[in-house]
Design goal:
The chain has 135 residues and is of the alpha+beta class. Helices cover 31% and strands 33% of the residues. A five-stranded antiparallel beta sheet has the order 2-1-5-4-3. A hairpin with a 4-residue loop joins strand 1 and strand 2. The radius of gyration is 15 Å and the shape is globular.
Length: 135
């Protein structure tokens, strides 16, 4: 998984918790021992996501949206955002593109989602911000 996705988490939607499968060490440093999914999303967004993408990211990846959206016939929620550079010398407007996919893992007897898998991958390729490409 780590060769395809830089972050992988197992989410318990009923308990609003997550368990790390793989993640970048910098993200682990920022999240620390946090296990509450909603809190971790906010911390991550404030440190790593471009300010113009934060609100939509938090809305799309929220427990409420995932519980309302994920079903056996729609088993994935996807969002793309600009990830701020982690390099200390990087310009403020440097970023790369990331695609997050949350895939339904398990439903309850009522067919409502119980657990999901969150994966994130860098999809920049040629989409990298010009200023980031210049650094």
């Amino acid at each position: 998984l780590s060769s395809l996705f830089f972050s992988t988490y197992y989410i318990n939607l009923d308990q609003d918790t997550f368990r790390t499968v793989t993640q970048l060490s910098r993200v682990g440093d920022v999240l620390g021992n946090e296990v509450n999914y909603t809190t971790a999303l906010t911390i991550y967004a404030n440190h790593f996501i471009h300010p113009d993408d934060r609100t939509e990211y938090l809305k799309t990846m929220s427990v409420k949206n995932l519980k309302n959206s994920l079903r056996w016939w729609r088993s994935c929620v996807v969002f793309e955002y600009r990830k701020l550079s982690e390099e200390p010398e990087a310009k403020a407007d440097s970023w790369s593109w990331v695609r997050v996919s949350v895939v339904l893992a398990r439903t309850g007897e009522d067919d409502l989602p119980k657990t999901a898998v969150y994966v994130a991958q860098d999809i920049s390729g040629g989409r990298r911000n010009q200023n980031a490409a210049d650094t």
